[in-house]
Amino acid sequence: WKGARVIAVASGAHEAFLSDLGADQFIDYTKSRPEELVRDVDLVLDTVGGPGSGRFLHTLKRGGSQFPVFPGDFDEEETAKLGVTVSTAQVRSNGAQLAELGRLLDAGTVRVAIDSTFALADARAAHERAARGHIQGKIVLTVA
């Protein structure tokens, strides 16, 4: 949408799914180490995060940013030396952004993939689904 070149990293079972969502390149982390293949990127969105997240710092160019969903430990001296930033994102309500997102969804520019849907009363089953991992999209709870 904004002209970004997107590199998706996942196991091979997710390649077709991520390509269909618009990834320009796919790296199967079970066969290759993405941090050895990718350099000079502007942004890393790390949807796994945690202790291994720091390995992606060296894929960023100076001035680049990494956004781990689940923060790990990052060495402030290392990030300063590399000239990169690490930030976590918080969801904030913004009417203008939500309206723009609605337009993008209506136009099909942005798509939401749904892995599975559960009634609110079955929230436990939804958590169990999440715990099994390898989710392709969002888990949705419906309210009657």
List keywords for this structure.
Rossmann fold; 144 residues; 2 domains; 5 helices; 3-stranded parallel beta sheet; 25% strand; alpha/beta; two-stranded parallel ribbon; globular
Annotate the secondary structure layout:
Elements: E1 7-10, H1 15-21, E2 25-28, H2 34-37, E3 41-46, E4 60-68, H3 76-82, E5 85-86, H4 95-107, E6 114-119, H5 123-132, E7 138-142
Parallel strand pairs: 1-2, 3-4, 4-5, 6-7
Walk me through this protein's architecture.
The mean pLDDT is 92. The chain starts with 6 loop residues before the first strand and ends with a strand. It contains 5 helices and 7 strands; from the N terminus they run βαβαββαβαβαβ. With 144 residues, it is an alpha/beta fold. A 3-stranded parallel sheet has the order 3-4-5, with helices on one face. 9% of the residues are buried. Strand 4, helix 3 (76-82) and strand 5 form a beta-alpha-beta unit. The protein has 2 domains: 7-86, Rossmann fold (3-Layer(aba) Sandwich), CATH 3.40.50; 95-142, no CATH class. The chain is globular, with a radius of gyration of 17 Å. The chain has helices at 15-21, 34-37, 76-82, 95-107, 123-132; strands at 7-10, 25-28, 41-46, 60-68, 85-86, 114-119, 138-142.
Summarize the structure.
The protein is α/β, with parallel strands linked by helices. The protein contains 5 helices and 7 strands; from the N terminus they run βαβαββαβαβαβ. The protein has helices at residues 15-21, 34-37, 76-82, 95-107, 123-132; strands at 7-10, 25-28, 41-46, 60-68, 85-86, 114-119, 138-142.
